[in-house]
């Protein structure tokens, strides 16, 4: 029975004993599954328990397998499990006579009698009486994991050499021998299997008694860079194995055709990372820097013919390039989606390289290959692999990742003009490396979603909050800060379109938060092609779709312009009759100290005024509310201009209700993006100055009415009031001209410009910009900026006017009884 069948046979026997519904194929499939699809270790143990619980040594084996699963490959654990239940069979006299299964070498050479004797000696020493060790040659044929060079299963099935990934199968309970010895023996045999001696390569030097000599780890194997248990996952990397080699004839004594044949055989092995005797890699220099760090130099046997040596020197750089690419793929594995995708493309390239080597071996087997012909075949590959190798080394030395890698490869394409083969290869690598990046980009511009576990995308979501979790006093900075660009994550070919990309996803997020479904009008297929600009048209289409859809949501479905008109009507005193009626109703309440003003009373008077004035037809009148701020206008102006938010926690000043009063306007999402907290605060600054001026004007008008009694005075007495009346009129003119200037010459023209520009606006960012420009222009020209000191003068002027009115009123009331 062959060894894979032996594995299935033991499992079938255990299954039949336990009458389990499982099958051998199902168990092997679960243990061979990759880590992301494999059952947990505890469930794998339960599977083995269910089929072996009737065996006498069931608990002992289960405990051993549990320990193995913690540190080893599950398939290795299954092999040990099966062998533990085959110990009685293996320790029988017939088992020791088991011979190696014949393995054909890559060159297809025939098995010699020496090979048979070597195989017999190995098998004879693999199992001893009373030992629980498993034959390495038996374990070698069990199907485990495949190496990198067998990436595609369809091609690996044709390979005649089996590789084992996780170390040796044999274990000796209680033995203190280093288990790396077993792995070293496997490596020696696999390396020997690809030599021209076929089964002779498996020979281990034996003593006269037929027992295998005990070799120390230092004698069997010499490590280069990485530990044994990880090396077979990647490549051989000219791994040095010291073992029983078949002695060869002196190279100098061989004729030239024989030298060439032997050299070709070793050269093909050297190109795939296998160490040979004629072509020996030099030890890497610890002080090597730059490209030399990933370069491999070779020492060529000095007894080779000079003509052969010259040709081989032209081919050997390909082995260095191949090994350098392999090292970089190993070093960058798992460093982000872009690097993983690039490594996948490189592994496909390596697979194609192996196919070339296989074809060359086939030619060599039929004696149709020479060094000159091999050089001719490999010359284009040498040029292309040099470009790939140098590009990858530069990427590795500069520690480039994600977008930086795409930028470098994209610029490399431009520098390869004239070298069509290398350029096409780099273009293919860029396309495949950019696939995960373009998938993230497509999700962002199509759905407004960021799926970026490795922080590789150009847009970052700084705070993931939902519409219901928005802060009460957020500003337009939320719109700017929620999603931002990371310049170091922008590939050079996306730099011109990064702003559109950012806006597209932001628009889609606002649309989604409005409860609307984001459905593009056409299916997007976003792929990066360095030879065309097709991805640009996809980005533009997505941008215009999102911009039009969000504008339609804002302007049509949520009537943004209607809300802006209402804000202008109330906060900029555009509704004249409402303003006067409200001041008449609330004047008495607002003259009190702010601590004595009742906000509920103001709200009731506001609701009454809205319903008896012409504002009753406004559909958004209920969004207007009263607010008593804990600071005066000058303080508010200073805080707003400095963008401070801590002013809300400050204690209230000793102010009247009139100095603290302001209207506020509440809107729902998404109009709150435009009419946000900062925008409403700016409207409040304009309102408070206009409202205060209106109050001063009303007080001056009251003085004029009360002083009309002076007309009844005698001319001599009336002349005493003339100076006071003149001062009052000058105050009236100043206040009215100030109101006229702010309302007619500043607010109205800027509002007209804002409305005209809104008719041609294309996106929400322009809406925000135009709205902020309108408010900033009004504040600046109304002298409500920190840089302007006129606002404090205006505020003092209004205070003087109110003190004058209070003085006149007191004087009139004092004179009235004696008049």
Automatic annotation (TrEMBL):
One of its GO terms (molecular function) is gamma-tubulin binding. Transmembrane segments: none annotated. Residues 560-810 form the Gamma tubulin complex component C-terminal domain. It holds the Pfam family GCP_N_terminal. Residues 92-105 have a biased composition (Low complexity). Residues 167-180 have a biased composition (Basic and acidic residues). Residues 264-557 form the Gamma tubulin complex component protein N-terminal domain. GO terms for cellular component: centrosome; gamma-tubulin complex; microtubule; spindle pole. Belongs to the TUBGCP family. Residues 92-121, 138-180 are annotated as: Disordered. It is found in: Cytoplasm, Cytoskeleton, Microtubule organizing center, Centrosome. Residues 106-121, 138-148 have a biased composition (Polar residues). This is Gamma-tubulin complex component. Component of the gamma-tubulin ring complex (gTuRC) consisting of TUBGCP2, TUBGCP3, TUBGCP4, TUBGCP5 and TUBGCP6 and gamma-tubulin TUBG1 or TUBG2. TUBGCP2, TUBGCP3, TUBGCP4, TUBGCP5 and TUBGCP6 assemble in a 5:5:2:1:1 stoichiometry; each is associated with a gamma-tubulin, thereby arranging 14 gamma-tubulins in a helical manner. Gamma-tubulin at the first position is blocked by TUBGCP3 at the last position, allowing 13 protafilaments to grow into a microtubule. One of its GO terms (biological process) is spindle assembly. It comes from Drosophila simulans (Fruit fly).
